[in-house]
Amino acid sequence: MAFNRRDFLKLTGGVAGAAFATTFRPPAARAVETITGVTYLPQSYKALSFGSNGFVEHLKKNAANVVNVDFFDSGKLLKADEQLPALRSGNIDFMFHTTSYITRSIPILGITGLPNVVEPLYENPGRIAKGSPLFDLINEQLVKEDLVMLSMGGNILEPEYVWSTKAAPIKSIADVKGKKVRVVSFEATGVMEKFGAGAVRIPSSELYLAMQRGTIDAAVANISTIIGRSIQEQTGTVYKLPITAYGIGIFVETKRWEKMDAAVKSAMEAAADWFDAESAKVANDDIYPNEYWPMIQKAGVEIIKPSAEDLAAVDKASEQVVAEWKKQVGEEVGQRAIDLALGRA
Q1: Which whole-number Å values give the CA distances from 298 to 241, 292, 294, 303, in the listed order?
Q2: Residue 119 falls in which region: left (phi positive, over 0), alpha (psi -120 to 50) or beta
Q3: Measured distance CA(334)–CA(320) in Å, rounded
Q4: What is the rounded (10 degree) CA torsion for 51, 56, 58, 62?
Q5: 204 and 225 in contact (C-beta within 8 Å)?
Q6: pLDDT by 10-residue block (mean), the chain, 345 residues
Q7: What is the pLDDT of residue 30?
Q8: I want to staple 306 with a disulfide (CB 3.0 to 4.6 A). Which of 134, 241, 315, 328 is the partner?
Q9: Which phi and psi angles does 238 have, rounded to 5°?
Q10: Contact (CB, 8 A) for 303 and 297
């Protein structure tokens, strides 16, 4: 039986309910268990959907006799801000989620977006790979949120830079002052406001028109968002100052994970191993440099490297953001996560 977002909301009322469980849970006597997964990311985000598509295909190819996967992308079943509540309430079994959207709800994931951490973390993928000390520390904290992270794709994605319109070019950190800048994460918001920007939080689906109409002057974004939403058509300059970043995690609710059939868990772990080895690697090392950045150049966008002074200024501005984040996760946990991300431990 095929379901869409409208059917889902009718069945669940937007919260956990017996109706959803009855509709989506296979009878206990069936040998093949059905699991439901989601991502709000559209297929136009090629670099990001590669990993989630591959995870699902791995399950279908290698564990069809064990598990059946109902997978909904592009927000067809749930929007971005609906995924986490649905996972926690048991309405879905797993989700792919960008960390930047949920650091306010799950602070430990903020380690993937701290401005003075993201560049060295991105350049050293092993530091957050499955089974690494940082990966394990994150999962230790996620237990408190009743969540399990199966993988974060093996690395965070290329950092988010400052993409500005032709009418309001940003070519240095000094140019940020007085500009209206779209940001998503708490970490990026703190830094941009420190430099005098008016931080605006709007969904990526509205970004094109916002830049076209001058509602905003710039956006802090990963290149996947730029290409996925054709933002290069509205962009005059990209200042490659690493402001923040994010990873894409596979998340499961703890109790659901514990009760899941052993064969299904094994199949999901194997698919997560593939995701960890390939997802971020293909995006960072293949799609971005070989497809996306040439598209940016072809569009005539001016690409500007950051000055040493601006890099230092971002590090300085990050101190307050880091201090606030440590209050949320705990001083000891926060410092340990930073040390692991920077290769100090």
Answers
A1: 21, 10, 6, 11
A2: alpha
A3: 13
A4: 170
A5: yes
A6: 56 48 48 94 96 98 97 95 97 97 94 96 96 98 97 98 98 98 92 96 94 97 97 98 97 97 97 98 98 98 97 94 96 98 93
A7: 52
A8: 241
A9: -120, 120
A10: yes
What is the token pair recorded at 25? 């849970």
What is the pLDDT at residue 186?
86
Structural domains in the chain?
A: 5-156+246-288 (3.40.190.170), 160-245+300-341 (3.40.190.170)
Question: Please, what sign has the CA dihedral across residues 126, 132, 137, 139?
Answer: positive
pLDDT given at position 8: 58
Please check whether residue 78 is in contact with residue 5, taking contact to mean a CB–CB distance below 8 angstroms: yes
Helix locations, 123-177, DSSP H: 133-142
* Neighbour tally for 194: CB within 10 Å: 19
Measured between alpha carbons, how far is 37 from 250 in angstroms, rounded to an integer? 10
Angstrom CA distances, 44 to 49, 56, 226, 227, stand at: 8, 17, 11, 8
pLDDT, residue 335, reads: 98
What are the distances in angstroms from CA 17 to CA 20, 24, 75, 148, 296? 6, 11, 20, 22, 46
pLDDT for the residue 93: 98
Phi and psi (nearest 5°) for 114?
-65, 125
CB 248 within 8 A of CB 101: no
Do 38 and 96 meet the contact criterion of CB atoms below 8 Å apart?
A: yes
User: What strands, in cross-sheet order, belong to the sheet with 33-38?
Assistant: 67-72, 33-38, 94-98, 248-253, 147-151
Q: For residue 22, what pLDDT is reported?
A: 44
- Integer angstrom CA distances of residue 161 from 157, 192, 206, 237, 305: 12, 12, 18, 10, 10
